[in-house]
Amino acid sequence: MSLIVSQAPSTERPPAAPPSLTPNQRAWRRFWRNRPAVLGLFWTLCLLVLVLTWPWIAPYTFEATSDAQFSPPSAQHWFGTDVHGRDLMTRVIYGARISLLVGWIGALVAVINGVVWGASAGFLGGKWDGFAMRVVDVLYSLPSIIFVIVLITTLEGFLRKWLVATFDAGPAAVGYARLIFLFAGLGAISWLNMARIVRGQVLSLRQRAFVDASLALGAHPLRVIAKHILPNIFGIVIVYATLTIPAIILYESFLSYLGLGIQAPMASWGSLIADGASQLNPIRVYWWLIVFPAGMLVTSLLAMNFLGDGLRDAWDPKGRSD
Amino acid sequence: MWIYLTKRIVGLLPLLLVISFLSFMLVRMAPGSPFDKERAPASPDIERTLREKYHQDEPLWQQYLRYLGVARESDGQGGTRWVRGGLVQGDLGPSFKYRNHGVNDIVAQGLPVSMSLGLLAFLFAMGVGIPLGIYTALRRGQWGDHIGSFFSLLAFCIPGLVVGPLLIMGLALQWRLFPVALWSSPWHMVLPTVTLGLYFSGRIARLMREGMTEAMKEAYVVTARAKGLSESQVVFRHALRLAILPVVSYSGPLLADLLTGSFVVENLFLVPGIGVFLVNSALGRDYNMVVGLALVYAVLLVLLNLAVDLTYGFLDRRVKLS
Predict the structure, then answer these.
(1) Domain containing A295 — which CATH number?
(2) Which of A5, A150, A260 is nearest residue B222 as measured by Cβ atoms?
(3) B75 in a domain, yes or no?
(4) Could A141 and B282 be called an inter-chain contact, meaning their C-beta atoms sit closer than 8 Å?
(5) What is the Cα–Cα distance from A231 to A104, expressed in whole angstroms?
(6) A3 located within any domain
(7) Are A99 and A268 in contact (CB under 8 A)?
(8) Considering its fold, how many domains does chain B have in total?
(9) Considering only CB atoms, which chain A residues are within 8 Å of B153?
């Protein structure tokens, strides 16, 4: 038994890297060796290309209705059609566009918010740190759905009025405005974890000699943050941002299910699944309405999680906790 | 120990005050009022009477004090008296939407149902997640690990609003193994429990796998092996104690989430819990209900986190409660 114990670490450790490699290069090397992660990256890129080029290669538009209602998958409609005879495949790929956009921009909002909040708390310390982290604690103990609903409806009231007054905007523009509230609302509830992680990192960096040296030489605190702190937390921030994207896409699908997400005729994966679920009845089972959007959602989330896990294993091998 | 407990419980009070204030103000910030009807606003006379009845005509700070139960009102004979009820007496006030019902009644009716569903889902998630996590950690790098880890990540990528409709379509409508909806016998509880618990079982399996992997590297595990203990004794009597800590700390917020109900599952299976109320009250501006449910959630979260900390101290004696 003890033999196995002493051998186990040595078989797991990668062959000693030549000293010329930077930590970043070594991390990339670890990443490319992780097959599921590379597969996840590949799938995400494929999805991106498909989503971006689809408007030019699609035989139907996402709003085009036809007489073929609820037709099962066939040669004309690979994923079948929905209640208005719209091609489901086109709608699923169009939905991917919205879901990915919401996920990526929502994650961006969460990252900026979390980094600013967490880094300032960790760097300034003292009273501000206590206050900032107390705010995070309080927001943690508030059910996020209340926060999102209030935020989205309040913003919607303001923005809609403003759009109509200033640009004389039609309903289409108001539909796109919904997207902006989703970015804001989803970003606003997803930054708490990021703030905690960043604060922890900054707190430990703050103790390091090079930060003290820089401050002692008279560098402005903002310069220290920009030059020394931020580059050092960049890796970990990217890693957790990658894991935030699928979480936000999931939350968006939940909001769409509530009817708070994307509004018809636009579609996201969540709203397509919700439409499919509303057609559930004991007489006819329209399985394709749920199976295809859900399948795309699940495979894409899987790919992004594999990618995020791979990035985390490569850059932050110690900090593994969900 | 008792001092610690008392301190934590007393520390709950300011948090509840902050949460009640925040949610009280937040939900009033959103446009619209609880007395709006679907289309046109209620007629001015009706609305005025309603606002008077529910004291919505008073200034905001007075409404809040009234909600807390520390305001004085006129007694109709020229004098003043303390308002009846209020949060200090444990009264969450009347519901604005379900007239003639107090928030207390609705919580008392729905919370037990949500709690039993949540507890079942929690047990399901633990029952699937912990064994899967231990298994994959012990088979690390082998096929068993790859397959097990894939399934735990897959569960983590399938939200309830996908699992629910699929289970209903397959097991309830197609093969008629389980009832489609409602909450009356143990048989009715199977599908909602699986729908709610599956996502979290994946998360728990991942946490358990990481915990176990770390624990197996500890010196005392090597000692236990050196003593000649069997592998199962090493794992279950020695390593498990430490390995389960990440799962324990995750289970506090998880249980608070699960016990207060899930909108998707309660909506899909027509379970009469409070998860539906939480969302609908925020959407319908049922002010008192939102604040009341936010408070219920916060109390549960704090108490469960306290329980988590106590369990922590019990499992890992090196942790000091202070």
Answers:
(1) 1.10.3720.10
(2) A5
(3) no
(4) no
(5) 21
(6) no
(7) yes
(8) 1
(9) 302, 305-306, 309
On the question of pLDDT at B12 being above 70, the answer is yes
CATH of the domain at B251: 1.10.3720.10
Q: CB–CB of A315/A201 below 8 Å?
A: no
Predicted pLDDT at A75: 67
For residue A9, what pLDDT is reported? Answer: 46
Rg (CA), chain A: 24
Chain B residue closest to A148 (CA)? B282
Q: Mean pLDDT, to the nearest integer, of B186-210? A: 85
Q: Closest residue of B to A276, CA-based?
A: B165
Classify residue B7: in a domain, yes or no.
no
Q: Does A287 lie at the interface with B, CB-CB under 8 angstroms?
A: yes
Which of 208-267 (A) contact B at CB < 8 A?
A: 246, 250, 253-254, 257-258, 260
Q: A249 is in which domain, residue-wise?
A: 23-56+80-314
Nearest-Cα distance to chain B for A302, in Å, is 6
Residue A85 pLDDT exceeds 80: no
Q: Name the minimum distance, in Å, from the CA of B217 to any CA of chain A.
A: 9
One-letter identity of residue B34: P
CB B124 within 8 A of CB B193: yes
Asked whether the predicted pLDDT for residue A306 surpasses 70, the reply is yes
Amino acid A148: pLDDT: 82
Inside any domain, residue A211: yes
Which residues does chain B have within 8 Å of residue A185's beta carbon, measured at their own beta carbons? none
Identify whether A281 is part of a domain.
yes
Task: Let me know: does B133 contact B211? Beta carbons within 8 Å.
Answer: yes
pLDDT computed for residue B64 by the predictor: 77
Q: In this complex, is the C-beta atom of A298 within 8 Å of any C-beta atom belonging to chain B? A: yes
In a domain, B103, yes or no: no
- Using a CB-CB distance cutoff of 8 angstroms, which residues of chain A are in contact with residue B32? 153
Q: B23 and A301 in contact by Cβ < 8 A?
A: no
Establish if A280 touches chain B: CB-CB under 8 angstroms.
yes
Q: Compute the distance between CA of residue A39 and CA of residue A31 in angstroms, rounded to an integer.
A: 11
Question: Which candidate from A153, A280, A301 shows the least CB-CB separation from B30?
Answer: A153
Residues 67-106 of A with CB under 8 A from B: none
| CB contacts, 8 Å: A12 with chain B | 141
Distance CA B118, CA B256 (A): 9
Number of domains in chain A: 1
d(CA B308, CA A53): 50
Which residue in the set B156, B162, B206 is minimally distant from A273, CB to CB? B162
Q: What percent of chain A has pLDDT over 90?
A: 1
- Residue B85 belongs to a domain: no
C-alpha to C-alpha distances, B240 to A320, B141, B237, B254, nearest whole angstrom: 18, 20, 6, 20
The answer, for A149 touching chain B at a CB cutoff of 8 Å, is yes
pLDDT of residue A17: 54
Question: Is A61 inside any structural domain?
Answer: no
* pTM for this model (two decimals): 0.79
Which of A39 and A262 is assigned the larger pLDDT? A39
d(CA B313, CA B245): 10
Eight-state DSSP code of residue B88? G
Dump pLDDT digits (tens) for B109-144: 888 888 888 999 999 999 999 999 889 888 887 888
Return all residues near A45 (Cβ < 8 A) that are at least 6 apart: none
Range of the domain at B124: 110-284+302-315
